[in-house]
Amino acid sequence: MPNHLIAPSLLAADFRRLDQAIDLVNNSEADWFHLDVMDGNFVPNISFGQFIIEQVARDAKKYLDVHLMIEDPGRYIESFAAAGAHGITVHAEACNHLHRVIQQIKDAGCQAGVALNPHTPVNVLENVIEDLDLVLIMTVNPGFGGQKFIYQSIPKIRQAYDLITVHNSSALIEVDGGIGLQNAQKVLEAGARVLVAGSAVFKADDPRATISKMKGINPNPVALI
Ligand code: DX5
Ligand code: ZN
């Protein structure tokens, strides 16, 4: 089983010193930057958009994983790709024509991901799973950082893992929301490969050491047989 990836979410960083947060991720064992775009419509909160991502892209030395929590994201795929996104993840619940949006992401030169809210069953991905690079299982209801991990997500991660295996898809499973050292091993053993962590990293006394500890977790490989 190849190593898992760590994707710190800048949402929990101190935006007065965004440069420091970017440097921190650049100079850590983290693999990706996770960027949370919220429109105040699909989710109650508003965060940031293409402009900020463009600024981050100027200094970031790692993969930019853009998570669009916005209604009808097909309207903005090209502009997020132009802003510097390497991967773009849209919510299944926000797309009337999910298949089309996935192709649009690929045509824009990015890796394509689909996110599922906690109430959305994994089987909505059955007819698109072979086209996906990433399946994002939300482990909180999206919209805010610092929420409590929803434990029912563990069997759901496993269902996503089984769907991917049955369809011989190369999609990675990413988990997002309430992830930290206390549950990282469990989600990895359920099949997750990318751990998003906002508060657990940026609110820690030593964010770099926390990233390193998360990266160093050794899941039991037998768990996935
Ligand atoms: C939640 C966002 C998350 C958020 C995670 O809607 O998608 O990426 O930043 O934050 P934590 O890790 O604090 O739950
Ligand atoms: Zn996110």
Which keywords apply here?
8 helices; 225 residues; binds zinc ion; globular; binds D-xylitol-5-phosphate; 8 strands
Detailed description of the structure:
With 225 residues, the protein is of the alpha/beta class. Helices cover 31% and strands 19% of the residues. It contains 8 helices and 8 strands; from the N terminus they run βαβαβαβαββαβαβαα. The chain has helices at 18-26, 50-59, 77-83, 98-107, 153-166, 184-190, 199-202, 207-215, and strands at 5-8, 32-38, 63-69, 87-91, 111-116, 134-138, 172-176, 194-197. The protein has an 8-stranded parallel β-sheet. Strand 2 (32-38), helix 2 (50-59) and strand 3 form a beta-alpha-beta unit. Helix 2 (50-59) runs parallel beside helix 3. The N and C termini lie close together (11 Å). The protein binds D-xylitol-5-phosphate (DX5) and zinc ion. The site of zinc ion (ZN) has 6 residues, from strand 2. Zinc ion (ZN) binds next to strand 2.
Main beta sheet: strand number and arrangement?
8 strands, parallel
Percent helix, as a range, is 25-40%
Taken as a percent bin, the fraction of beta residues is 15-25%
Ligands and ions found: D-xylitol-5-phosphate, zinc ion
SSE class: alpha/beta
Q: How many strands?
A: 8
Compile the SSE list and pairings:
Layout: E1 5-8, H1 18-26, E2 32-38, H2 50-59, E3 63-69, H3 77-83, E4 87-91, H4 98-107, E5 111-116, E6 134-138, H5 153-166, E7 172-176, H6 184-190, E8 194-197, H7 199-202, H8 207-215
Parallel strand pairs: 1-8, 2-3, 3-4, 4-5, 5-6, 6-7, 7-8
The site of zinc ion has 6 residues, from strand 2.
